[in-house]
Amino acid sequence: MSFQNELSEELERLESPTAIAQWVSNVLRDKIVKGVYPPGSRLVERKISAELGLSRTPVREALKLLHADGLIAISRNKGAQVLQYGPQEALALFDVIASLESLAAERLAEHISTETLDQLEELHAQMMTYYKIGNQTDYFDTNSEIHDFIVENSGNQIIVETHKRLIARARRGRYLAIMEPDRLVEAVSEHEVLMTAMRNKDKDAAAQIWRQHMTHTGETVVKVLRQDGEQ
Amino acid sequence: MSFQNELSEELERLESPTAIAQWVSNVLRDKIVKGVYPPGSRLVERKISAELGLSRTPVREALKLLHADGLIAISRNKGAQVLQYGPQEALALFDVIASLESLAAERLAEHISTETLDQLEELHAQMMTYYKIGNQTDYFDTNSEIHDFIVENSGNQIIVETHKRLIARARRGRYLAIMEPDRLVEAVSEHEVLMTAMRNKDKDAAAQIWRQHMTHTGETVVKVLRQDGEQ
DNA sequence: GCCCTTAAGATGGGATGCCATATGCAGCGA
DNA sequence: TCGCTGCATATGGCATCCCATCTTAAGGGC
Question: Closest Cα to residue A101, out of A229, A185, A215, A228?
Answer without folding.
Answer: A215
